[in-house]
Amino acid sequence: MAYKLTINGAARSADVEGDTPLLWVLRDTLGLTGTKYGCGAGVCGACTVHIDGQVVRSCVMPVSAVGKGKVRTIEALSPDRSHALQQAWIAEQVPQCGYCQSGMLMAAAALLKSTPRPSDAQIAAAMTNLCRCGTYPRVRRAIRRAAGMPLEEAV
Ligand code: FES
Ligand code: FES
Q1: Tens of pLDDT along 11-54?
Q2: Which domains does the chain have, with CATH numbers?
């Protein structure tokens, strides 16, 4: 069946089975490979995208459930790395292997949209993505930098 989707502001179509995970559609059907496959079980967050601004783990989202939801992937965070989070990620040299980082950025973008100046506790609660390289402290600093906050929370 052909599913009509809105991906990064554009109308796209995917002729796939309804239970195909959105991640598969993004990567294999539409060629948007910035979104990564990690666990395939909704645990690691490597596949994080936004649907109508909400964080979604696309590996466990059947394409049939997307409906009219507007999907945003890492490719649309900015056209030129100008998003405050991308700039902060560069400044803090967050990535190591980089595999988890597009999911991290999408989770962070949703967090700052809803909570422009998050506390460390709010960052920890929102950033449930897994990073085998252990970039968590730098992720936190980069989020604080992007939010225009001091890089360390006052104690
Ligand atoms: S690949 Fe989707 S949560 Fe791990
Ligand atoms: S930077 Fe390597 S898994 Fe996160």
Answers
A1: 999 999 999 999 999 999 999 999 999 999 999 999 999 999 99
A2: 2-75 (3.10.20.30), 84-146 (1.10.150.120)
Residues ≥6 apart with Cβ < 8 Å to 20: 14, 62, 63
Atom 4 of ligand 2: nearest residue by CA position: 131
Q: How confident is the model at residue 1 (pLDDT cuts 50, 70, 90)?
A: confident
Q: What is the DSSP letter of 57?
A: E
Among the bound ligands, the one closest to the CA of 36: 1
Q: Which residue among 25, 35, 59, 102 has the greatest number of ligand 1 atoms within 8 angstroms of its CB, and so is best to mutate?
A: 59
